[in-house]
Write a structure and sequence with these properties.
Length: about 325
């Protein structure tokens, strides 16, 4: 093995050992921290200086995306006015390996005056930060993987892992499920994969729909008005069938076609999708059947809207 690769692996092993050590020393302070997060009626705020500031931003982002309202607050900015963002109903996590950074120490007193509880994340429980914390989460004794033992590496990895443990445990305790995750991630591929059909469909008001007693002319007028490729036929709101250009071509030579009852020329039944189904299921049907629109129905098969291929493409489902 090359010397370069050997050192790279040693860094990974040392950081993995730091996380493993943290797992072994986790105590009831973690339980109390989770209870505090779940009981918080305001925001869970993360703060730190230097590399811990970067880690605190990531932890805050993870919390915010998994059901815990959160933001990050830099100590220096807090001491110059941004501390006004804090309220007594919030919960403040302060990250500092040494627990003795000047900016951190200066932040504690004004936070105490506001009445915001402090959870200290530090490797030195007896430090000024550890002493000030209402709850202290001990990072354990770590040695940095840096060749000169100075650049934060193992310590920040351990901080990040602890932050993930906090965020994801709170997520699990809230029973935060796939539907919740999709609501918080509407713009990404993960969110799209969990969206339900009713979230992406065109509503009934934008759907070409006619009663079973309507004429072919009425159906064509509805299609023209809504600028769609099909009309859906209902009886007291319940879906009966669909009328497409294919149906029109099959009956184009019929006598008095425009005045015929739509129920005589429509395709009975046909393809439909539940409003509660995943939007990706609707996309699969659109692609598999090579059609432009699919009617969306509720549990009673009442028509509630439609999904179009064009819309799915514009929302990057396809």
């Amino acid at each position: 093995m090359s010397e370069i690769r050997e050192f790279g692996r040693s860094v990974l092993v040392q950081e993995a050992q730091g996380v493993e050590q943290l797992a072994g020393i986790l105590d009831d302070s973690f339980d109390r921290a989770i209870d505090a997060i779940l009981a918080c009626s305001g925001y869970v705020v993360l703060s730190g200086v230097g590399k811990p500031w970067i880690i605190s931003q990531k932890i805050s982002a993870t919390m915010a995306s998994t059901g815990t309202p959160s933001f990050a607050l830099h100590p220096s900015e807090a001491l110059h006015g941004d501390i006004g963002r804090l309220q007594s109903k919030d919960l403040l996590f302060i990250l500092s390996n040494s627990g003795s950074s000047d900016e951190i120490i200066k932040l504690v007193a004004p936070v105490k005056r506001i009445g915001t509880p402090i959870i200290a994340i530090t490797a030195v429980p007896g430090s000024p930060l550890g002493t000030a914390g209402d709850i202290v989460l001990n990072l354990g004794d770590t040695t940095e993987a840096c060749p000169i033992g100075m650049a934060p590496s193992v310590s920040t990895t351990v901080m990040l892992a602890l932050g993930d443990a906090l965020a994801l445990t709170a997520m699990q305790q809230r029973a935060f499920g796939p539907e919740d995750y999709a609501r918080f991630h509407p713009g990404g591929a993960l969110g799209r994969s969990l969206m339900q059909t009713h979230e992406v469909m065109q509503p009934l008001a934008a759907t070409a729909v006619v009663d079973k007693s309507a004429s072919v002319k009425d159906a064509l007028s509805a299609i023209t008005e809504q600028k769609t490729g099909a009309a859906f036929i209902t009886d007291n709101g319940v879906l009966l069938g669909v009328f497409t250009d294919g149906d029109l071509r099959r009956h184009v030579n019929d006598d008095n076609l425009l005045s015929q009852c739509i129920s005589d020329v429509m395709t009975v039944g046909g393809i439909e999708v539940s409003a509660a189904a995943l939007a990706t299921d609707a996309v699969h049907l659109l692609e598999e059947k090579r059609i432009g629109e699919i009617p969306v129905v509720d549990a009673s098969r009442r028509l509630v809207g439609h999904v179009s291929l064009k819309d799915m493409m514009s929302m990057h489902f396809i």
